[in-house]
Amino acid sequence: MYSGVLEREYAEQKPQPVMPEYFLDLNLNQIVRELQEKGKDYDIRRMFFQMPKDYETVLYRQAIYREIRQKNLEVPMEVFSKKMRETREYKERHEKVEDKQQYQMYWFNAVSTFVDGVELLRSALSEGKAESEGLAGLLAYLEELCGTARWKDCIKEKEKISGMLSSLRFEVSIDGTNLRVRTVQQGKFYFDRLKKLFPGKFSDKMSERIGEEEIPRDYLIRSPFVTNDELSFLEAEIVKMYKKSRPDFFKSLEHFYKKFDKVIEERVYRIEEELQYYLVFYQFQKDMEAHGCVFCEPKIQQGRAFVAHEVYDLALARKNRWADKEVVSNSVQYREGERFFVVTGPNQGGKTTFARSLGQLVYFGMMGLTVPAEEAVLPHFESLLTHFSVEESLESGRGKLKEELVRLEPMMHKEQGNCFVILNELFTTAATYDAFVMGQRVIRHFSEAGCLGVYVTHIAELTKAGDDVASLVALADEKDHKKRTFRIVRKEAEGIGYAGDIVDKHHLGYEELCKRLEEGGLTK
Q1: What number of CA atoms fall less than 13 Å from residue 271's CA on the CB side?
Q2: Is 298 exposed, middle or buried (CB count within 10 Å of its CB: 0-12, 13-18, 19+)?
Q3: Domain parsing of the chain, residue ranges
Q4: DSSP assignment, residue 225?
Q5: What is the rounded CA–CA span in Å between residue 469 and residue 454?
Q6: pLDDT, one tens digit for every residue, the chain (524 residues)
Q7: Could you give the CA distance from residue 55 to residue 1 in angstroms, rounded to a whole number?
Q8: The domain 294-519: what is its CATH number?
């Protein structure tokens, strides 16, 4: 039986998922905002606000997403979703109108569109020979639904009424206060007469196919009476008169409404919504790939292997895609026994961006999607914990160090276990020795809890915080230290922040500041 992202994880009535704290630290909110814009008709965000806890769900999602990409199922799934949206629109109109015929016609349109959408998706999955547990289960559900006698009978009746509908032609004559409605032969149009009266004014070059006919585009105009969902008085009168000449059609329409009033299944809507989780991300992925970004499907294991080749910050790449700016990628690997990377190096050298890239790698990998890297092997993580440097809170009156400790405290009291932790520039306002002691205790706490993580800092001594700690360094250009390479390599900490280079780059040296102050009339 089919059970997907929503049905498997949100079947029970649970509180609406809220944006996790790590979203802001990792700039994931920027990516999900764009995903929401792509899937504006759905609540995309809530699908991305909760990482699956179990390993099996990650693999389940991976298999679905892989099959959608490899078997070109995106287009039929998009068309299916469009038809489900149209179905809901027809249902809404059906519920609002009062005219009996229009009421029944909107229901017929809703059921017809629903049936066509379901059949299209079923056919696409069948032709693609769905193999993943999720899509194979979905195909089985759709085949069961489409194989019922009621469903087959509905299709038969739908096609019969559609044929009758395409053959409906009538002529309206207005003479003073007299209104005359009569049927006409198929293919006879009011514009035929206009074309004879005004030759050269109408062209047959542009046309559209309606049913079995090829109709000149100039002939196709919207009814001048249509202003809203309700029939105008004149339209209602025309329908009443036309019913007398074609009672068979209106009786069939009424029979269809009474017989197939429960064909539309709400569960199909949940399936449609769930598919957006994969479709909007795939659209985003293709857009980023068109700008030179690389994605791969990570290999998720239950061991401790963590290897990533050419991983990059996807949020930064998204921001820079129109600016033709290069986003530097890095490769990294946790060796046997290692649990924490301590990253040091120059200011503005890419340390925080590197930490974010690993967090995004883990997040999208655990969501069962592709990741921003050329190749990746990841352990299964149940959650993400992040702590990035914050400013002082003017409202609380607490200093920056107190703010950091207040946020860190609940993180360290959670049951971490199988978790990936990112700690960025902690305790920068504390004395160096105090920052070292507190940083070492934090690393030891998460390491002993079984976590893997990254600690970005300027305190080189933290690279010696334990045998399970590895030192990574952000490199400056060898010839010009003012230039940053944004490359992160495994290397002994240098203990140099190159802060002077930043001061020189922005002309903030003592003599330059004094000169500016003097020019501004602030000194004598």
Answers
A1: 23
A2: buried
A3: 5-165+263-275, 169-245, 294-519
A4: T
A5: 9
A6: 445 554 444 444 456 778 999 999 999 999 999 999 999 999 999 999 999 989 999 999 999 999 999 999 999 999 999 999 999 999 999 998 888 888 999 999 999 999 999 999 999 999 999 999 999 999 999 999 999 999 999 999 999 999 888 777 777 777 887 777 777 665 555 556 656 666 655 555 555 554 455 555 555 444 444 445 677 777 777 777 777 778 888 899 999 999 999 999 999 999 999 999 999 999 999 999 999 999 999 999 988 899 999 999 999 999 998 887 889 999 999 999 999 999 999 988 999 999 999 999 999 999 999 999 999 999 999 999 999 876 544 444 467 788 888 888 888 887 777 899 999 988 888 888 999 999 999 999 999 999 999 999 999 999 999 999 999 999 987 777 678 889 999 999 876 655 555 556 556 666 777 777 777 666 55
A7: 19
A8: 3.40.50.300
Query: Rounded to whole angstroms, how far apart are CA atoms 475 and 285?
Result: 30
Residue pair 319/389 in contact by the 8 Å Cβ criterion:
no
Determine the distance from the C-alpha atom of residue 176 to the mean position of all C-alpha atoms in its chain, rounded to a whole number: 59
245 vs 221: CA distance, rounded Å: 24
Measured CA to CA, the distance from residue 499 to residue 192 in angstroms comes to 82
User: Which residue, 165, 163, 159, is CA-closest to 242?
Assistant: 165
Residue among 370, 423, 357, 368 nearest 51 (CA): 368
Contact (Cβ atoms closer than 8 angstroms) between residue 476 and residue 483: yes
Residues 81/73, Cβ–Cβ less than 8 Å:
no
| SS3 (DSSP) at 216 | strand
Strands (E), 184-324: 207-210, 213-216, 299-301, 306-311
Burial class (CB in 10 A: 0-12, 13-18, 19+), 335: exposed
Judge whether 424 and 25 are in contact, CB under 8 Å.
yes
pTM, full prediction: 0.84
Q: Which of 77, 505, 1 minimizes the C-alpha distance to 278?
A: 77
